[in-house]
Protein: FAD-dependent oxidoreductase
Amino acid sequence: MRIFYPGDTGYDDERSGFQTGLRHEPQVIFAVENARDVEQAVHHAETRGLDHTVHTTGHGLTTPATGVLISTRRMNNVEIDPTTRTARAEAGAVWQQVIEQASPHGLAPLSGDASDVGVVGYTLGGGFSVLAREFGFASDRVRKTEKVGDVVTALEFDLLEIDQVHAGELHFDAEHAEAVFEAFHSWDLPDHVTPTLTTLGDVVRLTFASTRPFDVDHLRVAPTLIDEFGRKPFAEAAGKPLPPHTYQGDNVLLDDLPLDVLHRVRQAASNAGVPVFLGLMPLGGALKTEATHLLKLISPLLGVEQQHEEVFDEVRSFVVGRSRNFRYAVG
Ligand SMILES: Cc1cc2nc3c(=O)[nH]c(=O)nc-3n(C[C@H](O)[C@H](O)[C@H](O)COP(=O)(O)OP(=O)(O)OC[C@H]3O[C@@H](n4cnc5c(N)ncnc54)[C@H](O)[C@@H]3O)c2cc1C
Structure:
């Protein structure tokens, strides 16, 4: 194991990650390689009255750590057992590793739309996969959790017999947003289909996936900029890594989202004065939760909590909770 203090060569690299707007500011970094190293790091923190925080990829950085940072990226072994259809992933493993090792066996994990996200961090937040409505939360599939205190050193979880999926995306110019939002909202959604709606500046993007066939014709309510839908290997639906960048974001879980409210949210996001991208995922199906929708906001800059809160004000009376995932650079 390597240990880094401020000023050491490698300290900056070790505390950096996908989020470039914020970095951890630890007194010491334990770059762990096994569970015994994690024990040592936790012991160091506890005996000195310091906080300890885990850093894997930095995708989910909320508040920068100031005490002990446990960097897990070297502790990233993944083992697949095709007989029992299980995977064991160490603390630093990312989904791409699991997908690559599982797919030759016709198996797949319940990973999300970015394959470079950490398996453990994602799963601890429930894990909304690209097939979430068909198969439930990633955390529903956990068989065994190995821990040192509150630090998960490895997870063992079920893989699913998934090879090909029906998946794709439609992109529209934002000038058609009202019609696209309406078509998305009125979709008589089969329980096996997992869709998302995302705004990205001038574009509204719809994505959808299932292991079973389904129809998206009714979503083509305006000319499409991208129209891609078909049968493909699960890995292709599992998202490509993005380059590191600066972003701030938060989310709410809702128990209803009437169309007029959705339109007000859309307008509030587009009138926020700063870029606010909106993400909407209908829940239900195999996701056993009282919430019917997950609404996410994300901006490519920091210091926009107030603008996000003003957009969330439009849905305040429907809020029943918040997902631990999809919270970025917020305390
Ligand atoms: C581009 C992008 C796409 C995403 N897509 C999805 C998606 O499709 N579905 C979804 O559900 N989520 C998604 N997320 C959210 C993601 O799952 C969370 O941000 C998650 O916390 C990232 O975990 P990490 O380990 O990669 O990040 P890190 O920033 O390294 O860790 C985040 C936090 O997770 C906890 N954590 C991580 N590892 C451990 C451990 N071993 N023991 C204890 N705690 C630990 C810690 O609290 C840590 O601070 C996405 C995020 C981004 C930025």
About this structure: The mean pLDDT is 97. The pocket of flavin-adenine dinucleotide is lined by residues 18, 53-61, 72, 91, 112-114, 117-118, 120-122, 124-125, 127-128, 151-152, 242, 325-326 (CB under 6 Å).
